[in-house]
Amino acid sequence: MASPLFDIVARLRDIAENGQRSDQKVAAAVLADADFATHASIEKLAEKAGVSEPTITRFCRTLGFEGTRDFKVGLAQSLAIAGRFISVSTADGSASNGVPSIIASSAVSAIETVTNLIDRASLDRAAAIVAAAGMVRAYGSGGASSMAATELENRLFRLGLPASSHIDGEMQQMTAATSSKDTVIVAYSLSGEVRPVIDAVTIAGRYGAKTIAFTAANSSLAAAAQLVLPFHIEEGTNVYRPSPARYALLALTDMLAMSVAEKIGAPAVERMRRIKNLQGMQKSDAPNLPLGD
């Protein structure tokens, strides 16, 4: 069986361009209809590619598979994970304003999804835990989750809370090891299966930290955290559109930050006033600008 890290589609495309003539035919036939290739008999696949059945068997072994059965299993796994990126359809331009409308509608849909899913009691409990923290550390890896972690730090320091964000796995684990009972960890992960984040949350919990996770329900991170605010955003099929999950995570972060601000009350308002006062000294349109941006 080929290595789990083997990219079968990339190899097929390379063979389709640079392989021997017979192999080019097989690779091209598979790429033209990968779903057909995962279900077709060796006879049907050979017929579609215009080659002999032994050529199909030899082709599969060349790729590192024991035979056609293992090849089809590997191809099916690749399709299940990233099938929509193999045969890319034309971007949807049916919305009234094309791309702007597509982006706007997906952002609104993502925010509405988490708004409907959020458990108010859990959000309130998370806000109370954060508001009472001596130190808040936000963890996230990758694209959307690391952005949300950084944004949480940005929101909390304005309220007078000691906060830091860490998107490097090694730093996540090292800072987690310095945790104590007044430390709060807020972890973000769309999948809930990012090992360094899971490990950091587990480590911090062992040292008495309170751990909160915005992540997928029933994930490894959800199991590791003490308080979970679960969510899931459908990615859709348009591969040209950036993931709307970013908007969902920002909305969740704002929900938490506002809830924390309300719990802190007047002291938080005073700190925000200081920032706005500083803005007034440096920017002409300070009254109409967002706080600190």
From TrEMBL:
GO biological process, one term: carbohydrate derivative metabolic process
Record domain SIS: where: 126-266
UniProt-listed InterPro entries: Homeodomain-like_sf, HTH_RpiR, RpiR-like, RpiR-like_SIS, SIS_dom, SIS_dom_sf, WH-like_DNA-bd_sf
Keywords carried by this UniProt record: DNA-binding, Transcription, Transcription regulation
Organism: Phyllobacterium myrsinacearum
Record domain HTH rpiR-type: where: 6-82
One term of GO molecular function: carbohydrate derivative binding
Descriptive protein name: MurR/RpiR family transcriptional regulator
